[in-house]
Amino acid sequence: MKIASNGFATIWLFILTLFVATTLQARGLSTSLGEVVVENLQVGQTYSLKQLANLHLTVTNNCDDSVALKMDILSPDSTELKKGSRPIPDITWLKLSQGSFVLGPNEIALSDITLSIPDENQYLGKKYQVTIWSHTVGLPGRAMSLGLGLKSRIIFTTDTARAPANKIVKSSDASVELVLKPENMFLDDVEPGKMYDPEAQKGSVLTVSNHSGHEQLLRLRSLTVGNSVTALTEGYEDAPDASYLKFSENEFVLPPFGTKEVRVYLDFSRRTEYCDRRFMFVIHAYVVGEKVSAGVYSRVYASVK
Prior knowledge:
Number of strands: 27
CATH architecture of the largest domain: Sandwich
CATH superfamily of the largest domain: Immunoglobulins
Distance between the termini: 48 Å
Structural class: mainly beta
Order of helices and strands: EEEEEEEHEEEEEEEEEEEHEEEEEEEEE
Radius of gyration: 21 Å
């Protein structure tokens, strides 16, 4: 991202957008890292996500027994590519500080992520995607039970030109410190053609909290599951139209450690084909106006009568 300054100098910045699915789960495993999008990186540089945004890959064992966990770096296939990206040319560009763990119940595996881009002109102005597959493997001396696994993805773009060495940004004091509550909102007996107000019906409101020590400009938007990085919950269909889910406010400022309640409304079109079906929406809250922007998810489950 190039920002002109005083008509003379050019300041080179990166933009890091963290779409972090709140507790992305696969049966007995969960992780806070769903998708990371890093823009305008420089070729010939190595970047640490820990330095960029205090971000690690963490995976929690939610099982009652110990598990062996492995983190593999994969090149995505064509069905997994998002946002116009292409597969990373070489998975060795991405490194994990640790890739194998043995976790007891409720224990957490933590690995730092670094990304190195070769110093070659052919990689200028590109958008790439790479996948990290966190999955269980057999423990020594124990029969392998049903395997568990989940995927996180990293999408990054390279700048179209090389920046002067003194303008390359490789660290930030930003961190992922947004919280949405509830993580899951269940709306029953939704009637097509009528506005459903969860606060009036069930006393449910959305709470957005800024756990950072500085003021944040936040936005809310509704997404279909297909346009998010979370997975569709069994027993539900993807929302037919994300615009059916609305908010009392879409943009607001939260002070340091501030919290705000936002009313959520659901307004399904009056179409009989939606009756007796269950749909899933995704709420995305994210920071705007920062070099490093963090986002989190909450899920809304609507049962239409």
